[in-house]
Amino acid sequence: MTHDPTPRPIVAVLGIGLMGLPMARRLLAAHFEVRVWNRTASKAQALVAEGAQPATTPAEAARGADFLITMLPNGQSVEMVMSGVDGALSTLGEGTIWLQMSSVGVDWAERLGHLAEGSPVTYVDAPVSGSVGPAEEGHLLILASGPLDARPLSAPILDQLGRRTYWLGEAGAGSRAKVVLNNWLVVLVESVAETLEFTQALGLDPQALVEILSDAPIGSPYAVAKARQMLAGDFSPSFALKNALKDADLALEAARQTGTTLTITNSFIDSWHDVVAQGLGERDLSVVYSSES
Ligand SMILES: NC(=O)c1ccc[n+]([C@@H]2O[C@H](COP(=O)([O-])OP(=O)(O)OC[C@H]3O[C@@H](n4cnc5c(N)ncnc54)[C@H](OP(=O)(O)O)[C@@H]3O)[C@@H](O)[C@H]2O)c1
């Protein structure tokens, strides 16, 4: 009987939501030993059936892990799962790399870095660009930042999750890039919604307009996909409006701190908050179209 003596690296994934699920699944498929923890344990059951080890607390997931991935909504929730007696930092040991991949914004990326400073782990700030489809296919773009020696060590994990990792500098640079990209994203989605409304107001067929956009360099594949989703009225989430709105707010806060004015984002942020207040925050962000039409 052959026996593989090489222990497989252990990866703990905290947060099995829209993104955490396909990311953990890719790591399982790549034969890492994957431990999963989710606040609502039932959402991790499919992964457990596929070979992941369930943990009842973040601390249990993190014990002895080589890598820890956090994929949670915001900085507060990441801090919560990392801290306290059941928090991951209580059991993580020397040499563990913490890949913080949630979109937490500029201030929280710094705060989480400070949290890691008092522990033996290496903190890598590595939010991602790309949604559920790219996460399933390992085609995310990873906006990584952190110490030089963490780069080659993180590569086996990040290479499974993304089609390219951009190393942008010291920890925090990834989250700064992420707020810029997501500001771009929310502006684009608002523009798509407004464009469809304008098209219809002019008595044109919006489907025909989307066809033209799909054939033109000005129509990005993402914008065209969102336009089709809006016209189909299919708001099943690949990126929840509440998370996109959180990112828009993080961008506005980062801009305020640097004395930059994000005029476009400021012009629609209140209406997006209204859509969330109507109870649509769990729907895909393309649902903002329904409030315009
Ligand atoms: N979806 C996208 O297209 C996309 C793309 C790039 C980046 N991101 C970013 O990636 C992160 C995760 O996004 P997602 O789409 O996977 O979010 P999601 O589907 O809303 O999942 C969030 C996860 O966090 C857990 N959670 C929520 N609040 C928590 C708390 N207070 N304590 C502990 N766990 C908590 C949820 O657990 P329960 O199951 O118990 O609710 C769930 O597992 C966010 O920062 C998002 O902005 C998302």
Number of strands: 9
Number of helices: 12
Shape: globular
Across the major sheet, the strand order is 3-2-1-4-5-6
Mean pLDDT: 96
Radius of gyration: 20 Å
Oligomeric category: single chain
N-to-C SSE string, H for helix and E for strand: EHEHEHEHEHEEHEHEHHHHH
**β content, as a range?**
5-15%
Summed up, the domain count is: 2
Q: What small molecules does the structure contain?
A: NADP nicotinamide-adenine-dinucleotide phosphate
CATH topology of the largest domain: Rossmann fold
Based on secondary structure, the structural category is: alpha/beta
Highest CATH level, the class of the largest domain: Alpha Beta
Distance between the termini: 66 Å
- Give the CATH superfamily of the largest domain: NAD(P)-binding Rossmann-like Domain
The percentage helix is: 40-55%
Please tell me about this protein's structure.
The protein is of the alpha/beta class. It contains 12 helices and 9 strands. It has 2 domains: about 10-170, NAD(P)-binding Rossmann-like Domain (Rossmann fold); about 175-290, N-(1-d-carboxylethyl)-l-norvaline Dehydrogenase, domain 2, CATH 1.10.1040.10. Helix 8 (about 175-200) crosses helix 11 (about 240-260) and helix 11 (about 240-260) runs antiparallel to helix 12 (about 265-280). The longest helix has 29 residues, at about 175-200. Bound molecules: NADP nicotinamide-adenine-dinucleotide phosphate. NADP nicotinamide-adenine-dinucleotide phosphate binds near residues 16 and 102. NADP nicotinamide-adenine-dinucleotide phosphate (NAP) binds near residues 16, 18, 71, 103 and 238.
